[in-house]
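Hi team,

Filling in the usual template for the complex we talked about on Friday. All components are listed, including any nucleic acid strands or ligand strings, so the model treats them as one assembly.

SUBMITTER: L.P.
PURPOSE: interface mapping
COMPONENTS: three
RESIDUES: 949
SEQUENCES:
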Amino acid sequence: MSNRLEVRNVSKRFSRMSGVVERGAELMGLKAPNPVVRALDDVSLTVAEGEVVGIVGESGCGKSTLGRVVAGLLQASEGSVLFRGKQLDEMPGKSADEARLKVQMIFQDPSSSLNPRQRVREIIGAAPLHHGMTTARELDDYVSQQMQRSGLDPSMAGRFPHQFSGGQRQRIGIARALAVQPDMLICDESVAALDVSIQAQILNLFLDLREQLDLTYLFISHDLSVVEHISDRVMVMYLGRVVEEAAVGELFSHPNHPYTRALLQERPSLDPVQRRFSAIEGEIASPLSPPSGCHFHPRCPMAMERCRVERSELRLIGPGHKSACHLND
Amino acid sequence: MLEINGLKTEVVTEQGNVTLIDDINLNLAAGEVMGLVGESGSGKSVTGLSIMGLLDKPVQVTGGQILFKGRDLRKLSQKELRSIRGNRIAMIFQDPMSTLNPVLRIDTQMMEAVRTHESVSKQAAWERARDALGMVGIPSPEERLSAYPHQFSGGMRQRVAIAIALLMSPDLIIADEPTTALDVTIQAQILSIVQKLAREKGMALIWVTHDLSVVAGLAEKLSVMYAGRIVEQGSTADLLRRPLHPYTNGLIASLPAHNERGSRLKQISGTTPSVANMPKGCAFRPRCSSATEICFDPPALEAVEGRLLRCFHPVMEGAPS
Amino acid sequence: MQTVMNSTKFRAGLQFIRQFSRSPLAVLGLVLITLIVLMAVFAPYLSPQNPYDLMQLDIMDGRMAPGTGSSAGFTFLFGSDDQGRDMLSAILYGLRISLIVGLGSAALAFIIGTAFGLTAAYVGGRVENAMMRLVDLQLSFPTILAALLILALLGKSIGNVVFAIVLVEWATYARTARGAALTELRREYVEAARSLRLPHRNILFRQLLPNCLSPLVVLLTMQVARAITLEATLSFLGLGVPVTEPSLGLLISSGYEFMLSGTYWIALFPGIALLVTIFAINLVGDRLRQLLDPKAARR
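RESULT (copied from the run log):
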């Protein structure tokens, strides 16, 4: 079985481009070069056909950057992205474009992900029309189909995004993505901005669509409960690196990495027992200057001298279970 | 400490009034923590702002009483209100920068806050500021006092905002989604600090949030709001174990943690109504599976099984685990 | 369905008009602009005389004070110039030239500058840097000096004046358009469009442009007033429109030499016309900025 998606040793660095004057100042040693953020640091990932892989982490962990690299919105600084075993940058331009079209993204903020000046008909219909998936004559029917499938009333195709509620707007975003007939969706915090009762509706829609259309998902979220519910496999990230990866049941019942354990422990739950919040110490370091060695060591209750100096590599600790912690040696 | 009866807040316009919240009743003793839970548009934030008297023009409190230590805040003059606000009642917002002035140093802001309400020496005010920062767990408070807000991370800024709220050791703190924008581990840190302080100092706390699970371990009492009204109110343990209102029940049942992994979630269908377009009778009726004819009349908030409930058809069985 | 849709758009329009008209000064400005434009359009019917037709001029009517009767039978409401030309007629015809130059050059500069700024923001990187340095260069050049140089090289004509003004004004639009586009580019709908592989043309003109329009429209109104002033200045300095098609600026210029000899009206009335026009446009522009520019404080 080939993998739907393979990400091989991808790194992504960001730095602000220096202007002419700045560059001169840097050359003369008057100014330090612009700082480099390592948003992704040697990240690998495989997603099988039809699988749902969840990516969890806090802000600055690189999960959104990873999603955008996979969606082709950002270029990886190093490493490669393969769709069905084929490297995209080695494909001829046209088929790379087609392959990219098969991967669509569902965004976090339903109000900023829809163009406020366009009617729903145009938001959903522009891309399939451009790519020849429908004709101008059949466009209205085509858009209606997409809207229906996402749980929207097709008679509202002539409205503007601001006339819809948050949940409906997210459905428009989903209909827009589905309109170009993708087989993989990248959901970047797609339910985070929604009310609790609406969250369940949208999650159910994702589940239904998976069944109807055999979709593969990369599901990015900071919310452990949501990821646990929808994913087959989960990857935990911290400051640009993968710290743990396992099948969902395994990860939630036998978390290995201290960071994963901390996350699970801090997860808010509905347990009404007055509990003591035993907070994990310290702050998430800035991705501009991540700690040496294992990025998590300053906050880790079990940190040793080795964690300070030596990077912990991700390695297999059980069937399908990988973790990056020196304690496993 | 705080007793609110029949509070009503409306947008007052020439074309007529639009009700934002109505018939809000709350009771809070010293040292008690109450979670005020609702989705966007439920009126939970408006309730907090109404108590603080921080509403902006077309929005006004138009009915009810807000008794704080026996005095009705609505009857006080602007001057008396100002001396209570920030002094005896403090507020923490979702965005700490709405409390902090970006161009002033933390010590300037905190000392000013102390000296508006109390005539103390600069030295005493500075010491009070330092102690407050220490209380919220900011390391080396002496040095951090001379920093500017932008030099703090999001979580630290929220701690500073909490420290400012704590400066005058208020009797009541109203916190409006203060951890929503923060990461899970940082949220846990803030919750732990607030929980500790409320216990130690005997402060009453109203924690406004959309997330039941945040207040589940924090608050003793819960008020669930829907469409501008309280629909269910009682002890946290009772409410979460056996929600009686179909809305509370639906909310809890829809959480992924209460559903089998990978299965369809039990969802509440439909969307929250907008204030301009309220359904007749019970506002939850169009989304409720047990609604009947009688629900076209507005239900009243009544005592049922040791709690307050606004429903004709309480959920009797099948409560989530 | 269609009617429901139209009605919401209609209502939004109504709402905007209501907000706009909350400022009586802005309404005054709008009324004045309408009157001025109408007067310019219907100048041939309103003016007692065709000021360009030398056959209708009588040198004996030269430098008549306001209110005096002409030999042709009508009254010189605003007086006459040294050629015996009725000032009212000259102003109405001059207004036409001024408005054509002002609107034409502002519109052209708007189109060129906006396309330039949007493209720069969208392309990004070194190309954007180079494009924006060009804009900086343009903006750092003294406007009038640049325009004077261009006209000195090309010679006088309405077309050349428009060209000169466009050349010195496009950069302002480019900078505003780039700024607005940079904000919009960060919004997720642009990422969505990219991920849907929509063509660049679509992203630039269907996604970005409509969302960047508000600050540009405000700038456009302000720049119309600026272009009219610039044209008047150039004409006053003798490098603007040719004498055969006098604009308001040229009228003021030709009246200037008689100013001290007591024949004040030749310069004064065109001056007032220019002032009122600029003032009215600025009133409307200010109000538009209040309503459309998110950075301006909301009342």
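MY TAKE: Residues 293 and 310 of chain A are 4 Å apart (CA to CA). Chain A has one domain: 3-102+182-328.

Thanks, L.
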